[in-house]
Amino acid sequence: MLFSAILARFVYLRPMGTLINVAAIIIGSLIGLLIQRKLPKKIITIIFQVMGLFTLVLGISMSMKTEHYLVVIGSLVAGAVIGEWIDLDKYMNRWSDKLKKRLRMGNDKFSDGMITAFLLYCMGAMTILGAIEEGVEGSYDILLMKSLMDGVSSVALAAGLGIGVMFSVIPLLVYQGGLTLFSSFISDHFTDVIINDLSATGGILLIGLGINILEIKHLKILNMVPALVIVVILSYLIY
Question: Are 148 and 5 within 8 A, CB to CB?
Answer without folding.
Answer: no
